[in-house]
């Protein structure tokens, strides 16, 4: 994939992060918008929109960094563990899902029911499972586990700064944006690389026909 397509992927993912971050803020930070809408304060409202859009852009950059790390880890894991790499990924997924329940629950000291942390982890796993199935259907079945690994393990790692903030508002802002950006990158990557392969095949066929 050439640099022009990498830049295009970066900018599009950045745009998605900004839009999703702003859109999510309408729900998780609705009280802030209400304060500036009644009475209407254009300057403060504009500043709020810029702030949450900027947060979305920042979360998008974190997502893209994690995505490139994932590509490296996947290749390294294949070379190191070979046929055992899918099994290792499944074990890591199970470990991270457990961590998403255990550590946040301990952090709140029992103030929040364990049930909600189980729901949260199940929702991330379920969403990742759906996206991984789509990836596998559009490429091949071997892509399912690596895709699930990205959507669960890498997203959870990227989410660590959000989990350390006080309150849950920014954690929600971050996880929604991360999932959206990781989903886009995962599902668009094979389309970009396939278009390159098709282009190379057309060039090779033209060269072959000219030689003939």
TrEMBL record:
<keyword id="KW-0472">Membrane</keyword>
<feature type="transmembrane region" description="Helical">
    <location>
        <begin position="84"/>
        <end position="102"/>
    </location>
</feature>
<keyword id="KW-1133">Transmembrane helix</keyword>
<keyword id="KW-0812">Transmembrane</keyword>
<feature type="transmembrane region" description="Helical">
    <location>
        <begin position="7"/>
        <end position="28"/>
    </location>
</feature>
<feature type="transmembrane region" description="Helical">
    <location>
        <begin position="48"/>
        <end position="72"/>
    </location>
</feature>
<dbReference type="InterPro" id="IPR024164">
    <property type="entry name" value="KinB-signalling_activ"/>
</dbReference>
<dbReference type="Pfam" id="PF14089">
    <property type="entry name" value="KbaA"/>
</dbReference>
<feature type="transmembrane region" description="Helical">
    <location>
        <begin position="144"/>
        <end position="164"/>
    </location>
</feature>
<feature type="transmembrane region" description="Helical">
    <location>
        <begin position="114"/>
        <end position="132"/>
    </location>
</feature>
<feature type="transmembrane region" description="Helical">
    <location>
        <begin position="170"/>
        <end position="189"/>
    </location>
</feature>
<protein>
    <submittedName>
        <fullName>KinB signaling pathway activation protein</fullName>
    </submittedName>
</protein>
